[in-house]
Design a protein that fits this description.
about 400 residues; six-stranded mixed beta sheet
C-alpha cells in the first residue's frame, strides 16, 4: 500500500529526535536520534499485516472487512508503546500518528494519518486525542486542514487523570490523557463496526470520558535515550502520586507503602472523582508504567478486586498489562470506567473481537474466561451427578459455584 501525503508535504527520513548522540543508561538502541525510525522499521517486519510508513511515522490498517464505517484514529509521542501502534487493527484503531520520544506527532504526520484512514473507511474519521498540549494543538490544526480537503472528520479530547480533582473546586489543572483512552478506542471502534456515524460516536465517546477516571503512582523515573540523567529524582524510599505518562513528577510524594495502601489511595480518589457508589458496576485497567513486573501489577489487580468487593462495587471487566508505559518508569496507573443500566452496551463493545495485536487479549480475555468457567462448571456438575451420592451432590454443587464465581467471575 502506498501512503498518500497531503499536498506537497516534505517528510524526511532523517527527521531526528533532538537528543544527543551519547547512549547512556544502557539503552539498547543504535543512535538516540534514529531510535523511533528504527523501532518503526522493526514493527513493520514483525507485523506485516500493518502498513508502516517510517517517513511520516504513520501506522495504518491497509484494509478492513467493513469499509463502510467510521475510521478511528489516534496518536502519541513514542515511548508509550504498545500505545498507539499496538492497538491498530479491525475492531480498534484504523491509523495512528507517532511522534518522537515524548513529543506529539507533527501536524503533517497527524494529517497524513487522517487522510489515509479516510480512504480505508468511507464514512468519516473520528480522532481520539490524548489531552496534552502538543497533541491537542497539532491534531486540531490537522483536522482543520482535513476538513478543507473535504474529509468528514471530528475529534474527542480524552482526559481521564483525576489526580488533581477536589470536590467543589473548579479551577484545577485540566485532566491529562492517560490509559483510559483504551476504553474509548475499544468501545468507539466496536460501535463504528456496527454502523454508528461520526456524530453519535463523538457523543458516546464524550460520555465515556465523563464516566472514567485514572490515577497513578511512580516508584522510579524514566531515562530518555541520549540523556545523561533521569527526568525526575525519586528517593529510594518514596513514591510519587499522581504521575502522568512522560516521567514528570507527581502531585506529592509519600513514603514507600504496601500495594494494598497504594491501591486504597488511588481508589479513594478515583471513586470520588466519578462518584462511584455502593452497588455500581465498573470496568478496570491496571497499566504498568514500564519496568513494573506482572508479579506487581497482578498483585494490584487482586487488591483492587478485594477492595471494590468490600465496598460492594461490582468489577465487571478487568484488563492489566504494560499498555501505555512511560519508557522505563516504575509504577502503575489504575483506571475505572463506571457502567450503568443506560450504557450497559459498553460491556458488549469491550467484549467485541479485534485483531489488533495488543487488543486481542485485552478485548476478549474476560469473555473467554467467563465462557470457560461455564463450560467447566457444566462438565464438573455432570460428573458429580453421575458419580456422587445424592446427599453429597448439593454440597459439592454449592462449593463448586462459589469457587468458580471467585476465580472466573461467572456473573
Amino acid at each position: 500500500m502506498k501512503v498518500m501525503y497531503p499536498r506537497d508535504s516534505k517528510l524526511l527520513m532523517s527527521e531526528s529526535q533532538s537528543f544527543g548522540e551519547t547512549v547512556t543508561f544502557k539503552k539498547i538502541v543504535n543512535r538516540p536520534n534514529t531510535c523511533v525510525n528504527d523501532m518503526l522499521n522493526g514493527l513493520a517486519k514483525t507485523f506485516p499485516g500493518l502498513h508502516v510508513d517510517v517517513k511520516s511515522k504513520v501506522v495504518l490498517l491497509p484494509q478492513d472487512g467493513n469499509p463502510n464505517s467510521v475510521a478511528i484514529v489516534s496518536g502519541a509521542g513514542s515511548g508509550h508503546e504498545p500505545y498507539p501502534t499496538g492497538f491498530i487493527g479491525k475492531g480498534m484503531l484504523t491509523a495512528a500518528a507517532c511522534g518522537n520520544i515524548f513529543s506529539s506527532p507533527s501536524v503533517t504526520n497527524c494529517l497524513t494519518a487522517i487522510c489515509n484512514a479516510s480512504h480505508v473507511k468511507k464514512k468519516g474519521v473520528l480522532v481520539l486525542i490524548l489531552s496534552h498540549g502538543g497533541d491537542t494543538l497539532n491534531f486540531a490544526l490537522a483536522i482543520e486542514s482535513a476538513k478543507e480537503m473535504g474529509i468528514k472528520v471530528d475529534s474527542v479530547v480524552v482526559g481521564d487523570d483525576c489526580a488533581y480533582y477536589k470536590p467543589g473546586v473548579k479551577n484545577t489543572p485540566p485532566r491529562r490523557g492517560l490509559v483510559g483512552i483504551l476504553f474509548v478506542a475499544k468501545i468507539a471502534a466496536a460501535l463504528a463496526q456496527q454502523g454508528m456515524n461520526v456524530e453519535k460516536l463523538k457523543q458516546t465517546c464524550t460520555e465515556i470520558v465523563d464516566n472514567m477516571a485514572t490515577m497513578g503512582f511512580s516508584s522510579s523515573s524514566c531515562t530518555v535515550p541520549g540523556q545523561q540523567h533521569a527526568l525526575v529524582t525519586i528517593a529510594p524510599d518514596e513514591i510519587h502520586l499522581g504521575v502522568g505518562i512522560h516521567g514528570e513528577p507527581g502531585m506529592r510524594s509519600i513514603k514507600m507503602a504496601k500495594v494494598s495502601e497504594l491501591v486504597k489511595i488511588l481508589l479513594d480518589q478515583i471513586l470520588r472523582a466519578i462518584k462511584i457508589q455502593t452497588g455500581d458496576d465498573v470496568c478496570g485497567i491496571v497499566n504498568a508504567l514500564g519496568i513494573t513486573t506482572p508479579l506487581e501489577f497482578y498483585t494490584a489487580v487482586a487488591e483492587i478486586e478485594t477492595q471494590l468487593h468490600a465496598r460492594r462495587i461490582h468489577l465487571k471487566r478487568m484488563y492489566a498489562g504494560t499498555l501505555m508505559p512511560a519508557l522505563d518508569s516504575g509504577g502503575m496507573q489504575i483506571c475505572l470506567l463506571k457502567v450503568s443500566e443506560y450504557n450497559k452496551f459498553w460491556l458488549e463493545c469491550l467484549d467485541a473481537s479485534t485483531d489488533a495485536h495488543h487488543g486481542r487479549g485485552a478485548g476478549t480475555l474476560m469473555n473467554h474466561q467467563t465462557d470457560l468457567s461455564r463450560r467447566l462448571y457444566k462438565f464438573l456438575l455432570r460428573y458429580l451427578v453421575q458419580n456422587t451420592r445424592l446427599e453429597q451432590q448439593k454440597f459439592s454443587e454449592l462449593v463448586l459455584k462459589l469457587l468458580l464465581k471467585k476465580y472466573w467471575r461467572m456473573n
